[in-house]
Amino acid sequence: MNFPENLKYTKDHEWLRVEGEEAYVGVTDFAQGELGDIVFIDIDSEGETFSQEDVFGSVEAVKTVSDLFMPVSGTILEFNTALEDEPELVNSDPYGDGWMVKIKLSDLAQLEELLDAAAYKELT
C-alpha cells in the first residue's frame, strides 16, 4: 500500500496535495483497491463551493457506487477531464494522473485537522 508523505489524508480515504492556496484531491490507493475496477467518475460541480465533508461527486466501480467527500472547504476550480475517457486512471495512478479535482482552499486552518501519512496508515 502506498502512502505518500507529502499528502494529507481523510478518514473517508481522500487525499489532498496542497500547492499554496490550491490543492488537488483524489482517493487513496487503499480506497481504489477497496472499490475495485472504477468505471465512471461523476463530478459535475466545477465552480461550486463546498464545506468540509460535503459530497462533491461519486465514483462508480463494477460492484458499487461511493460518494466523494470534500476534505476541506473550497471551490472546485477544475475537474480532471482525463477521467471522462479513462476512469481507470484512479486505479492505476491514484496519486498522480488519477487526481479528481483541483480546488481553491477557503480555510487553510482546516488542513491541520487532516491526517498525515503515518496516521492514515494506522486507519487502513
From TrEMBL:
One of its GO terms (biological process) is protein lipoylation. The modification N6-lipoyllysine is found at K63. PROSITE patterns: BIOTINYL_LIPOYL, LIPOYL. It comes from the Bacteria. This is Glycine cleavage system H protein. It holds the Pfam family GCV_H. Binds 1 lipoyl cofactor covalently. The glycine cleavage system catalyzes the degradation of glycine. The H protein shuttles the methylamine group of glycine from the P protein to the T protein. The gene is gcvH. Its cofactor is (R)-lipoate. It comes from uncultured Aureispira sp. The glycine cleavage system is composed of four proteins: P, T, L and H. Keywords: Lipoyl. One of its GO terms (cellular component) is glycine cleavage complex. Residues 22-104 form the Lipoyl-binding domain. Belongs to the GcvH family. InterPro entries: 2-oxoA_DH_lipoyl-BS, Biotin_lipoyl, GCV_H, GCV_H/Fam206, GCV_H_sub, Single_hybrid_motif.
